[in-house]
Amino acid sequence: MEDQLDRIDRNILFALAQEARLSMAELAARVGLSKTPVQARVRRLENEGFIRGYSAIIDRERMGEGHVAFVQVKLSDTRSAALDEFNRAVQAVREIEQCHMMAASFDYLLKVRTRDIASYRRVLGERISALPHVAQTSTFVAMETVKDR
């Protein structure tokens, strides 16, 4: 599906990823087309699933969620049904910002946001460790975010 994108489509996607609130006129100027064809391309990119949605970038520190921990999770069972059960359960834990299945010595890598280390400890003990099939976790605390795109 990637080969369906030409240079202009890629430029549109890059521009919107950098600043989703661009007007169609501003976007058209950036990619070198007029407004009407850019609107049609954006609509097509949305319909085809290249653009899945738009969101605001929130200052998580100001929201009281500045503590970031990365958690390696090993499961006790990695058959499809167990993986599906874990995947569904992760969706319900608000503090888990990202969840990635890994090809590594562990099964999942979670990005967890909380207020502070004490809050993280509670989330780890009461929510993450209680997820289906969790056998072991290892935590890495971020000291500073250098790039977050």
Give the beta-strand count. Answer: 4
User: Kindly state the mean pLDDT as a whole number?
Assistant: 95
Q: How are the strands of the largest sheet arranged? A: 2-3-1-4
Q: Biggest sheet, open or closed, and with what strands and sense?
A: 4 strands, antiparallel
Portion in strands: 15-25%
* Helix coverage percent: 25-40%
- Beginning-to-end CA distance, first to last residue: 24 Å
Question: In a nutshell, what does this entry contain?
Answer:
The chain has 149 residues and is of the alpha+beta class. It is built from five helices and four strands; from the N terminus they run H-H-H-E-H-E-E-H-E.
How would you sum up this structure, described in words?
The radius of gyration is 20 Å and the shape is elongated. The chain has helices at 7-18, 24-31, 35-47, 80-90, 117-128, and strands at residues 67-75, 96-101, 108-114, 134-141. Helix content is 38%, strand content 20%. Strands 2-3-1-4 form a four-stranded antiparallel β-sheet. The two termini are 24 Å apart.
